[in-house]
Amino acid sequence: MPEGHTLFRLAREQQAAFAGREVHVTSPQGRFAGQAEMLDGRVLDDVTSYGKHLFAAFGPDVVHVHLGLYGTFTSGTGLPPEPRGALRMRWEGPGEDGEGVWTDLRGATACELITDGEVQLILDRLGPDPLRKRSDPAKAFARISRSRVAIGALLMDQAVLAGVGNVYRAEILFRQRLSPFRPGKDVAAEEWAAMWADLVVLMRAGVKAGRIVTTERADRERRRGPALRDDAHYVYRRTGLPCRICGTEVRTEVMVGRNLFWCPTCQAV
DNA sequence: TAGAAATGTTTAG
DNA sequence: TAAACCTTTCTAT
Asked: pLDDT at position A226, please?
């Protein structure tokens, strides 16, 4: 489930559960075994995220995690379950009240030990993240407004904008009634301002809800109870179904190697 | 039980 | 542009 909101939420949860205390670090699968041994028993200083990257600092040594397409963290309190499957990294700590907390990482594209300098190199090649307060949307627009590449492709480029993935790409373009095929240079400053503001709202809502919900209806229902799962998106994965606004069949096409979903009527230009 | 698909990135050609 | 990487989950047979 990894777009930027997932990492933001994970960093916050792990910070609360483990930071400031010693962590028992293991790698039952073995792929992170050497590094786990080196970190085992040390105090975790803090956990932060930027875009889709997670950084956990143990003094000068930083665990860098990128979940990729299939990576997941699972966590709980009390005793951790018997390790099963390919368990790359496990953390165990005393938790707030000494009852015990644990978290397991599987399937990540990156789980590596890096230095502060290497963290900086990663941050340097990322565009502004709508979830970070200090992010400057003008930096993204400077690139977008100079590019002939389609806006649907630019939104997926982490050097332009950090944290947006395939779901937010499809949904933000629909909500702004913008064709994914419009060249970046033809996106007006006001259109970009509206898109950024909406991304901030949607991604914050994603952090809060723990999943991506972009429809007004799902929003309303969330206040009364859990939204219907298939009500959460306007176009993402709704190929061939009627558009929720105009009834036209939602279309799909591969753009930058990923399935793009859009309504050809609502998002005509 | 097998196969496909999945919210992603990097490297090779 | 395509393939590789890596794991889980859902669907079809």
From this structure: 47
